[in-house]
Here is the input.
Amino acid sequence: MSEDTQAAMQHGERKEAAHPSPLTYVAVAMTLAVITAIEVGIFYITGLGHAIIPVLVILSAGKFALVAMFYMHLRYDARLFSAFFAGGLALAAALVFALMWLSGFF
Amino acid sequence: MATAAHGGEHEATTTGLNHRKMLMWAFLGSDCMFFGSLIATYLVYKGKSKGGPQPIDVFDIPVTSVSTFVLLMSSMSMVLAYSALTRGSLKGFRIWIASTAIMGMTFLAFQVFEFNDFVNYEVHFKCEEVGTGSLTEFEESFSDRCVDGVDEVDGIHDSEGNNLTGLTPKTNLFGTTFFTLTGFHGAHVTLGVIWLLSIFFYSFRRGRVTPERHLDVDLAALYWHFVDVVWIVIFTVVYLFGVFEGF
Here is the structure.
C-alpha cells in the first residue's frame, strides 16, 4: 500500500471520528422541522405573490443541504463522495431545465 | 490487505476510500437523475391536463406537511441509530432503527391514505357558490348540474353509481405524472423500510451488526437520507408549487 493511500485512510478515520454528537443531530432535526413549518406558513400568506417561489426554493435547498451535510455526513467525509453526489445533482438539474426549456415552460 | 477506514474492514483501494461506499454515492448520484426526469416531466405537463381534478382540487397541504415531518424525523432517528452503533450501544441502535422503520411505514400509510383519497375524490359544492370565484375550475365545470330545484352538487356518478371525478393515473396528465413520481418515491421508501427491518432483525444474530461493521448500517442510512432529500424537493415542487396558482 502506498503512503498516499495510507494517509488517505488515516484521514478517513479521522473524519469518521469527527462525526457530530447526537445533540447536533437533534438540533438539525429541529431546524428542519422549523423550516418546514415556515414553508407551510409562508404558503398560506397570499400577499407574497410570485415572491413565494424563490423563498420556497431557498428554504427547500436549505433543508436539502442540512440533510446532505450533517445526516449524510458529506461535511465530514471525503470530498470525492460529495463530488459524486453533486455531479449527479448537477446533471439532474440540467436535465430538469433542459426538458422544461424544450417544452416551452419558461 | 484489509484495513479499517470509512467503516470497518475493507480492501486497500487507490483512493483510500471504501468502494462500497463509493458505489452507493454513485448510485445516489444516478438516482438524482432518475427523480430529476420524473420531476421535470411533472413540471412540463403541469396545468396542461384536459379535464379531471387538478392539484388545487385534491391536495391537502396540512396532511402532507405532517407526513413530511414524519419522514424528516425518521432521518433523525436513522442517524441516531448509526451514532448509537458507532458508540457501541446495540440496544440504542435497535431502538432507533426500529423507530426509523416505523416512521417509514407511517409515511407509507399517509401515502396510501392520500392515494385512496385522490382516487375517491368527489365534487361537492353549493349551487349558490357558482360564479363567485370560490370554486375551482374543475368544480365550475359541473355548474350545469345546478338546475332549478337543485341546491347543491354532491358527487358526480354514472348510472351504476361509480364516481366519475376521482383522480387515477389514467384520468389526466396531472394524475399520470403525479402518481408516477410519488409512486416511485413510495417504492424507494418501501425498499428502505425492508432494508432497515432486515438490519434490525439481523442485529439479533451475534456478531452480525457491530461497531466494527458499521458500514452496512452507514450504507442503509445514506439510502434512507436520500429518500428524505428527494421528498424535500417533491414536497416543495409538487405540493406547494402545485397548489400555488401563479406557478
